[in-house]
Amino acid sequence: MTIRYWASRTSRGHNDYFWSELQEGRLRQGWGYDQSQDLRQVAKLDVKDQSAVQRETFRHRHMLGKEGGWQNGDIVLVPNMPEQGMFALVKVTGPYRFQIDHKDHDFGHIREVELLTKQGVANTNPYVDSELRSTLRNAGRAWEIRGRDAAIMRILEHANDESMIAHSTNMQRTASVLAQALDTANAALLESFTEGLHGALGKAEWEGVIASALSLHFPTGQIKATGGPREQGADLVVELPNPFGGEPWIIVIQVKDYRDEVGAEVIGQLEQAITAYSEADGEPRQVIQAVLASTQAKASPAFEECAAKLTEKTGVPVSVISGKELMDLILRGILHSGIEQSIRG
């Protein structure tokens, strides 16, 4: 069965009512204030035999589901639901019927539907592409949406995401596209970047590069290169603002440019760093993580065993980032840093 996609506007000033009806499985339309406007009756008449009130409602004949109209399984976009600047998507599930609303004495045209977007969708949500947004500017009461099947299915894939009700600016959508492009670029660049970087950097040269890359991942933190004769076990230290006030939270990082395995001897440096940075000027500080950043070598089983013991002893989690994961972190940081400098420059 071929699914067709439609848009159908409701009457202004009744958003709450139409939204509640959609939630109950009814897509209503006006004008439908007179029993003679039942489309099943109107469709049997020649145009010349239709009364004035019947002619004004015949524009809704697509709701009947005859050839060229809505069929079960079709998707209908309802603008300004549940409020202005949003829309809902519904699936046609049942036949047309006519039942005038007793309160407003109108809106008798009904098609049974299933509400697919329980919260609605913001017109400017990043998942709504520009051509689908452009169809919302159509001033007509109802029209068929063509060529936007993939765009609508993309929205339906995320229909239950809370983020679908969020609006976005032009620049925010541009940033979202950029982030997706960078993900694609990273995958293509990573192998070549890794090979080239290992030839370009060695030993302590990695520390400054990793520090620069970390600025993307910790935009509110301070990243300090502390390697050298007085490193106190850490080559890099990340200081993060404490959201509860007081001294910053600390992450200590030991960088190793090894080729084979990182042995248990490095644990002593991480323990030294945890101890050294757990206090400043006689005041306790909170070290929240100790990290081994290894450019190529994996952590040995002996390292992992000792790391678990150090975590148990100090209460500070010890983790490892190495090889491809570390190169990906660096690549993302450098790319974003370069782009931001280009925008500022």
Please tally the β strands and state the result: 16
Q: Please state the overall shape, judged from the principal axes of the Cα atoms.
A: elongated
Rg computed from alpha carbons, rounded to a whole number of angstroms: 31 Å
Using the 3D structure, state the CATH architecture of the largest domain. 3-Layer(aba) Sandwich
Q: Per DSSP, what share of the residues sits in E-state strands of 2 or more residues?
A: 15-25%
The number of helical segments is: 10
CATH top level class name of the largest domain: Alpha Beta
Stretches with pLDDT under 50, minimum 5 residues: 339-345
List the helices and strands and how they pair.
Blueprint: E1 5-8, H1 15-23, E2 26-29, H2 39-42, H3 52-57, E3 75-79, E4 86-98, E5 109-115, E6 121-122, H4 130-135, E7 142-145, H5 149-157, H6 170-200, H7 205-217, E8 222-225, E9 236-240, E10 249-256, E11 261-262, H8 265-277, E12 279-280, E13 283-284, E14 286-294, E15 298-299, H9 301-314, E16 318-322, H10 323-344
Parallel strand pairs: 1-3, 10-14, 11-15, 14-16
Antiparallel strand pairs: 1-7, 2-5, 3-4, 4-5, 4-6, 8-9, 9-10, 12-13
Helix pairs in contact: 6-10, 7-10, 8-9
